[in-house]
Design the sequence.
């Protein structure tokens, strides 16, 4: 069943671990979010990898694949005339000052997450510095597991919309 409260978009920029991506696909299936996978990925979407990464949920997820980060950003952050121009982007990074709970998520927001090993490229973070948010943690800790971070962020966006369409 499709989540009717909002059309949340989860964007994984160059994910490396198939099990994390599978867990995230499962979260997307449970809340009706669209999953964007930005290449290159550290794995291939083969039947074998899918089986190890939550295969039974893949058919329930609307997946959009992008050949590279620049293609995604050209489509969603361009000032050119486009139906997708100026999309509401929220980049999750430990380098931000603002907490993820301090922003409002629109009905079709894009929540962006980077590679497990390195996060979002610093040049992208600089380009969208005003759109960066963080999940608070104890000082000195590098990061949460990617699938946990996505779940925290996605459910905050859902909460802000009153969990519409969810039971």
Sequence:
């Amino acid at each position: 069943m499709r989540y009717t409260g909002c059309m949340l978009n989860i964007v994984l920029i160059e994910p490396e671990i198939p099990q994390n991506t599978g867990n995230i696909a499962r979260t997307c299936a449970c809340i009706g979010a669209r999953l964007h996978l930005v290449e290159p990925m550290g794995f291939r979407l083969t039947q074998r990898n899918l089986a190890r990464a939550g295969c039974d949920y893949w058919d329930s997820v609307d997946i959009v694949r992008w050949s590279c980060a620049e293609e995604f950003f050209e489509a969603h952050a361009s000032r050119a005339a486009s139906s997708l121009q100026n999309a509401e982007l929220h980049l999750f990074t430990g380098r931000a000052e603002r907490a993820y709970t301090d922003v409002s998520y629109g009905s079709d927001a894009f929540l962006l997450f980077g590679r497990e090993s390195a996060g979002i490229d610093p040049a992208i973070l600089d380009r969208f510095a005003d759109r960066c948010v963080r999940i608070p943690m104890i000082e000195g800790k590098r990061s949460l597991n990617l699938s946990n971070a996505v779940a925290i962020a996605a459910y905050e966006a859902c909460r802000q919309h009153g969990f519409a369409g969810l039971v």
